[in-house]
Amino acid sequence: MPPLAGASVCRPDPSDLAQIPLLPILSSTFTSTSHFESEARPSRFLSALRYIMPRGETKSLLVKKNAYAPVPNNLEDGDISITGPRDAQQAARLYSCATVFSLTVLALLLGLGIGPYIHRNILGNCHAERNSGDEDPLAKWGEPGTGTEDIAWYPTDFLRDVIPVACHSHNDYWRKVPLFSAVYAGCTGVEADVWLRKQDLLVGHDTAALQPNRTFLSLYVNPLVKILERQNPSTEYYNAKRRGVFDTDPDQTLVLLVDLKTNGAETWPLVLKQLDPLRERGWLTYVQDGDIHHGPITVVGTGNTPFDQIIANSTYRDTFFDAPLDHLDNSTFDSINSYYASTSLWASIGNVWFRGGPNDDQLAKIRKHLQEAHRRGLKARYWELPPWPIHTRNRVWEVLMQEGVDMLNVDDLDGATKGDWTKPKSF
Question: 190: helix, coil or strand?
Answer without folding.
Answer: strand
